[in-house]
Design goal:
The complex is a heterodimer of chains A (837) and B (361).
Chain A (H helix, E strand, L loop, with lengths): L1 H7 L6 E10 L2 E11 L4 E5 L6 H8 L7 E6 L2 E3 L4 H6 L2 E4 L11 H8 L10 H12 L14 H14 L4 E5 L7 H16 L3 E5 L3 H7 L2 E6 L2 E7 L5 H8 L20 E10 L2 E9 L3 E5 L6 H8 L6 E6 L2 E3 L1 H7 E4 L3 H5 L6 H6 L7 E2 L2 E2 L1 H14 L16 H14 L4 E5 L7 H16 L4 E4 L3 H7 L2 E6 L2 E7 L5 H10 L19 H7 L3 H20 L6 H26 L7 H15 L6 H27 L5 H19 L4 E3 L2 H7 L2 E2 L2 E2 H19 L1 H11 L1 H6 L4 H27 L1 E2 L6 H12 L11 H20 L4 H32 L1
Parallel strand pairs in A: 3-8, 3-9, 6-7, 7-8, 13-20, 13-21, 16-19, 19-20
Antiparallel strand pairs in A: 1-2, 1-4, 4-5, 9-10, 11-12, 11-14, 14-15, 17-18, 21-22, 23-26, 24-25
Helix pairs in contact in A: 4-27, 5-6, 14-15, 15-16, 17-18, 20-31, 21-26, 21-29, 21-30, 21-31, 22-23, 22-24, 22-29, 22-30, 23-24, 23-29, 25-29, 26-27, 27-29, 30-31, 30-32, 31-32
Chain B lengths: L1 H7 L12 H20 L6 H26 L7 H14 L8 H25 L4 H20 L8 H8 L1 E2 L2 E2 H19 L1 H11 L1 H6 L4 H26 L12 H10 L11 H21 L3 H20 L2 H10 L13 H6 L3 H7 L2
Antiparallel strand pairs in B: 1-2
Helix pairs in contact in B: 2-13, 3-8, 3-11, 3-12, 3-13, 4-5, 4-6, 4-11, 5-6, 5-11, 7-11, 8-9, 12-13, 13-14
Classes of the chains: A alpha/beta (837), B mainly alpha (361).
InterPro entries (chain B): ABC_transp_permease (IPR001851)
Keywords (chain B): Cell membrane, Membrane, Transmembrane, Transmembrane helix
Membrane topology (chain B): Multi-pass membrane protein
């Protein structure tokens, strides 16, 4: 490694970031940071949480633009990068949270994220297999990523990064979920890549890993570079000194001065839960208890358990009373780290948020008393000096600090037995921090046990009377009194060598999936089920009525299924995208009305072609409008396509207010030609479904489509253009509807403005029967076509068996509900099974 | 210093009555519509015309308020037509003109409503089915019951029924009193009771609601039950208003029930509901129909105006028009360099995911 290092000084740097600054709403995340990454070196970036490490690397990989400074790569200077540009420049990043697409298979995740050139040398399977073997990921290529463990997902991310043969590889805390065996393999791969000339940026909290792997190290603190050194020339103590020692920017309230015999009012005796084991804490009245550690080592899980949001084993008692998780859910007040997701109801007002946990206290007779509520809420908020335009302002419009005070106000108003705060000052400005510290101290003095988790050791040093330090789910140190210093906390956290409690090597714990299981978890299981049901139902009806398989019945059933099937295949695309298209029915009706003006008896071929062309154009315009409303005007898919649903109904009636315009009999006859009893149109549709299926599974178009529906954020980060995919998707929906409309012309035979709308709900029914998920990301065209066939068959059977319309409705309702429940239960069981691994 | 700050902070106030953006929008649109109606087609606001329009608007309002409760929980209910049609059929077929049998018929309809509501609620709240699928299935089953009872043939409403829901009191259609009653009950229950306030909180952010110990599933489930009861009432009303309700009387209320909720300003993503604005939106849509009919233009125009109203209504909430206008008024004077001025779409794209989703309707 040293020899490499010596020769690199003469070559130009792989990446040179000069004077980079980044501000978020005026707050500096990075100030004047300059880093140079040389070819063939492993460059570790060290620093506490919030020091700016991830921000710096997001700038390098193009996902965040810097506020100032420049980036020099390959001899060219850039003000900022985009993910695509960074990709072409040879940057690959492995994020802390894997950006994988759970609904797609392992192989598809590789294909959608990597350029085709990666798969050019050799068969796709072989290349993909080799990529997985390279990182020791022992999963089947056809496994759905949702069923992998967290460690396996991480390995998949790492495999994607290595596959690009990057010039610069950025690894953001890659070892957190991995076991020792996987870590060794990863380090081996990193060394190989480095030997081949790749530069590696390695973000970590662990000094041991820096020693093991890195050539040079840069330490960040408070968004500034504290120093860069060659690893072999700096001691652990020197590194620690660079990491800690942050300037105290807030003042803390004095700590409690308690007589030694103060009662213990909070006692946690050896509790274990998901993500933490054997944690014991005891606190006396008036003490604030801190939970320290590198983010993601079980602190949040511990706090969630204490708040009653996760189950735990062991005993928690407050003031001598023992509490179960269920009690705690109602009696403990929890301040979550992610205020947006689970802290506040952002669209509701300040008053409503503050009052929501204490509403019962504000009632007079049966109703919430306005005056009681206002008195209590405004007193509380004024005490906490919340600054807001008024109590009616939406809480989302407040600054982070004021939002957090509203959370505290809500907690205090509910008179909790326990106050639990996860990162209480995250995203809070300095002034408000001081006040939040004061408020927490006052709550503690009033006798409510206060437990705080923070990744800022300085904060815990200033605030807490007792601190436990966690690493990989275990308590590795319990500190009190003068022991509570940033140095001791950080050193306990970063020097720990405990192993992850969910050791996932990507190998040992997981049984290799069998072919049968993969099929059952795959997208085609519902199709197989449908085929079986179709055959059984057909056989039963045949025993009741021998005319059932008569060629006229077969023909008319398949023709009906054909029209519905084409529309359902369009609907499938909308659902795969995670959306829905309510406008398909009226669009089909509208297109038939257009046709009724052109495709008549005696019309010239030119007129007929013109009519078909106009139908296609109308379909494309409708798809475009749907897509634009959804992507650019931020309509929900329901609102956008509902608008088009109503409008298209209007246009259909505008063209024809009553039925009229018979469709050319020649046209109908041609489209109704058959092979035996089977319509040619149906055979054509099956072929189209198979082709569409091929594109969905094996082509970038299909991967992009399903990636967007599976997880929009992850899709964006693997480089899928969301807007283009969605808008093209909705245009394709409309084109399938055009196909359906052509078939409908033969069945309706006349321009009928009222014929379309019912197809919307029927198409959704067919698609759901086919096993396509309304959550997006998974589904098949074949399934939708089969769903259309089954639906038509059931309706036909009620007629053939003489059951009447009641049964038509009942069967249709039962079919969709049973299918939805079966698929949904099967899926949630699978997911639970995956989580237990 | 901290204490001084606390003392100096101005006391926070709360307005006794707040007027939502949705209420202003839909309210002024309705006023303008009536003004235009008065100028262009005076007969569309005549007494007879209004007494024909208002009852239907009120049925729509009641169904819309039910839909609103479901939408507040981030759901959507497609079983509106099934329940309205079934109720109208039960209260006309079972009594078959005999007033004495009316009450048991209404009780039976209520039983259906409760069962259907719990079926929807449990499938969606507990089994986590998609609301579109679950309510679509329930709707088909309700229509099965509808046809089993009616055989598809209409019967005449009883006299009592016609007097109660189709009649007038002090020259005002009784349906108006029903709708106002429902409006008051829904408003008080949602805005003034502990359960109602929690209900809105659950709708606004189920995860945060769970974190403070609220019973998320119960609230989600009950939304569908309350909604069915309101559809049932709407069915009873329509049975009295139309002398001979068909077996498919509810069909025409499905899409409008969603449209009035959206026009009223309730987000399809859930959260706060706006009952008064929803009711006014129902009057707006129905008067629009009346106006267009009086003008004598084709119903197609009316449908198109409805679609346009919906599009404009939604985009009022989703698009930050102030920012759009600001850029358009700035652009001519200072042509910015191409890098500094992204085209309109991308500037919308750049909103944070949280803000974007909160705004999306």
């Amino acid at each position: 490694m040293n020899t490499l290092h010596d020769t690199t000084a003469t070559r130009s740097a792989t990446l040179e970031m000069s004077h980079i600054s980044k501000f978020y709403a005026g707050v500096a995340a990075l100030t004047d940071v300059s880093v140079e990454i040389r070819p063939g070196e492993v460059h570790a970036i060290l620093g506490e949480n919030g020091a700016g490490k991830s921000t710096l690397m997001n700038i390098a990989s193009g996902s965040t633009p810097p506020s100032a400074g420049s980036i020099l790569m390959n001899g060219e200077s850039y003000d900022s990068l985009t993910p695509t540009l960074a990709g072409t420049l040879g940057v690959a990043i492995v994020h802390q949270h894997p950006a994988v697409l759970g609904d797609m298979t392992v192989e598809e995740n590789l294909r959608v994220a990597l350029p085709d050139s990666v798969f050019a040398d050799g068969s796709n399977d072989e290349v993909a297999r080799a990529l997985l073997n390279g990182v020791g990921l022992d999963a089947h290529l056809k496994d759905r990523v949702e069923t992998l463990t967290l460690a396996q997902k991480h390995l998949l991310e790492i495999a994607k990064a290595f596959a690009r043969h990057p010039r610069l590889l950025i690894l953001d805390e890659p070892t957190a979920p991995l076991g020792r065996e996987a870590v060794d393999l990863l380090f081996g791969r990193v060394r190989e890549a480095v030997a081949a000339g790749t530069s590696v940026v390695y973000i970590t909290h662990r000094l041991a890993e820096v020693r093991e792997l890195a050539d040079r190290v840069t330490v960040l603190r408070d968004g500034r570079v504290r120093g860069t050194a060659v690893v072999d020339e700096i001691t652990d103590d020197e590194l620690l000194a660079l990491i800690v020692g942050r300037k105290l920017e807030s003042t803390f309230p004095p700590k409690s001065l308690l007589p030694l015999d103060t009662e213990v009012n909070f006692d946690v005796a050896s509790i274990s839960g998901p993500g933490f084991v054997d944690v014991s804490i005891a606190g006396r009245r008036g003490e604030i208890i801190g939970v320290a550690g590198v983010v993601g080592n079980g602190q949040s899980e511990l706090l969630r358990a204490l708040a009653g949001l996760e189950n735990f084993e062991g005993e928690v008692s407050v003031g001598g009373t023992s509490y179960t998780p269920r009690d705690l859910l109602h009696r403990a007040a929890f301040m979550p780290a992610d205020r947006h997701r689970e802290g506040l109801m952002m669209s509701l007002s300040v008053r409503e948020n503050a009052a929501v946990s204490a509403l019962k206290k504000f009632t007079s007779t049966y109703l919430v008393s306005r005056s009681k509520e206002l008195d209590a809420v405004s007193t509380s908020l004024t005490e906490l000096s919340v600054k807001a335009p008024s109590l009616d302002a939406p809480v989302g419009a407040l600054s982070g600090g004021n939002q957090q005070k509203v959370v505290i106000s809500r907690a205090l108003l509910s008179e909790p037995v326990l106050l639990i705060a996860d990162e209480p000052t995250q995203g809070v400005d300095v002034g408000a921090r001081v006040e939040i510290y004061r408020i927490l101290r006052e709550a503690s003095e009033s006798g409510i046990p206060v437990i705080i988790a923070s990744s800022d050791a300085k904060e815990l040093e200033g605030l807490c009377d007792r601190v436990i330090v966690m690493s990989r789910g275990h308590v590795v140190a319990t500190l009190s009194g003068d022991q509570i210093t940033e140095e001791i906390i950080v050193s306990a956290a970063v020097s720990s060598t405990t192993q992850s409690i969910q050791v996932g090597t990507g190998k040992s714990t997981v049984k290799r999936s069998t072919g049968v299981r993969r099929f059952l978890q795959g997208d085609y299981a519902p199709s197989a089920l449908l085929v079986a049901v179709i055959i059984l139902l057909g056989a039963y009806v045949l025993t009741q009525n021998p005319q059932y398989l008569g060629s006229f019945n077969i023909f008319s059933m398949l023709m009906t299924a054909c029209g519905l099937g084409a529309i359902a295949m369009g609907q499938t695309i909308a659902l795969l995208l995670g959306g829905i298209d309510l406008s398909v029915g009226p669009l089909a009706g509208f297109l038939v009305v257009i046709a009724s003006y052109f495709i008549n008896d005696g019309a010239s071929t030119g007129t007929i072609v013109l009519g078909l062309a106009l139908m296609v154009v109308a379909a494309i315009v409708v798809g475009l409008v749907n897509g634009v409303l959804i992507r650019y005007l931020k309509f929900t898919p329901i609102a956008a396509t509902l608008t088009l649903y109503i409008a298209l109904g209007g246009f259909a009636f505008l063209l024809r207010d009553t039925q009229g315009g018979y469709i050319s009999t020649d046209f109908v006859t041609n489209l109704s030609s058959t092979v035996g009893p089977v319509p040619v149109a149906f055979i054509a549709l099956v072929v189209i479904a198979l082709v569409a299926e091929y594109f969905l599974r094996k082509r970038r178009w299909g991967w992009n489509l399903r990636a967007v529906g599976s997880n929009e954020e992850s899709a964006r980060s693997v480089g899928v253009s969301i807007n283009r995919t969605v808008i093209l998707g909705y245009i394709l929906v409309s084109l399938f509807v055009f196909l359906g409309a052509v078939i409908l012309m033969t069945q309706i035979g006349i321009g009928d403005p009222a014929a379309g709308p019912s197809y919307t709900l029927t198409s959704i029914t067919a698609v759901v029967l086919g096993g396509t998920s309304l959550l997006g990301g998974r589904g098949t065209f074949i399934g939708s076509l089969l769903g259309a066939v089954l639906l038509t068959q059931v309706l036909n059977a009620t007629t053939v068996l003489g059951l009447g319309s009641v049964f038509q409705y009942v069967f249709q309702g039962l079919l969709i509900l049973v299918a939805a429940i079966v698929y949904s239960v099967a899926r949630s069981r699978k997911r639970r099974a995956a989580e237990q691994l | 210093m901290v204490d001084a700050l606390a003392r100096n902070a101005p006391a926070l106030t709360s307005a006794r009555f707040s007027v939502s953006k949705g209420l202003i929008t839909v309210g002024s649109a309705t006023v303008i519509l009536f003004l235009i109606s008065g100028v262009l087609a005076p007969s569309s606001i005549s007494g007879t015309s209004l007494s024909g329009m208002l009852p239907i608007a009120c049925v729509l309002a009641v169904a819309g308020l039910g839909q609103m409760l479901v939408v507040q929980q981030g759901g959507i209910d497609l079983s509106v037509p099934g329940m309205i049609s079934l109720t109208a059929v039960i209260v006309t077929h079972n009594p078959d003109g005999n007033d004495a049998l009316l009450l048991p018929a209404i009780a039976l309809a209520l039983v259906f409503a409760v069962v259907a509501g719990f079926a929807n609620g449990l499938m969606i709240g507990s089994l986590r089915l998609n609301p579109i699928i679950a309510t679509l299935g329930t709707n088909a089953l309700l229509y099965g019951a509808d046809l089993a009872i009616s055989g598809g043939r209409p019967r005449i409403t009883t006299k009592l029924m016609q007097t109660i829901s189709g009649g007038q009191t002090f020259g005002i259609p009784n349906a108006v009193f029903f709708a106002l009653g429902v409006l008051i009950v829904v408003s008080v229950l949602v805005k003034k009771t502990v359960a109602g306030r929690r209900f809105e909180a659950v709708g606004a952010n189920p995860e945060a609601a769970r974190a403070i110990g609220l019973r998320v599933r119960s609230h989600q489930t009950l939304a569908y039950v309350w909604a069915q009861l309101l559809y049932c009432l709407a069915g009873i009303m329509i049975a009295g208003i139309t002398a001979q309700p068909s077996a498919f009387e509810g069909d025409k209320f499905l899409l409008p029930s969603v449209a009035v909720v959206v026009l009223g300003g309730t987000s399809l993503l859930g959260g706060r509901g706006f009952p008064l604005a929803t009711l006014i939106a129902a009057v707006f849509l129905q008067q629009l129909t009346q106006f267009v009919i009086t003008l004598g233009v084709s119903t197609a125009i009316q449908t198109l105006v409805q679609a346009a109203a919906l599009a404009v209504g939604v985009s009022l909430y989703t698009v930050n028009w102030r920012a759009v206008f600001a850029r358009f008024s700035r652009t001519p004077s200072v042509p910015p360099p191409p890098t500094a001025a992204p085209p309109a779409p991308s500037s919308l794209e750049n909103t944070t995911p949280a803000a974007a989703s909160a705004d999306a309707v």
